[in-house]
Amino acid sequence: MTKRSTGYWLKTALCTGTLAVAAVGSTGCQITEGGQTLPSPYYIRDDVQYFPAGAEFKLQREANAMKAFAAQRRLGGVP
Description:
Layout: H1 3-27, E1 31-33, E2 36-38, H2 60-74
Antiparallel strand pairs: 1-2
């Protein structure tokens, strides 16, 4: 091999290796941790979405209205 071809292959190998490392480093990896799918290794710095717990019984207002109506009916307020 001549010096020119050795330098060419060395430069090509270095460029290819640099591009491969940049591609792998920029993509991240997807993992599953504690039942959630985490899209990248930077999830720790991501803002957390918080959804507060709702009422245990979804129709509580309707149940309260029905109880109030039944109590009012027993007292004779509604025919």
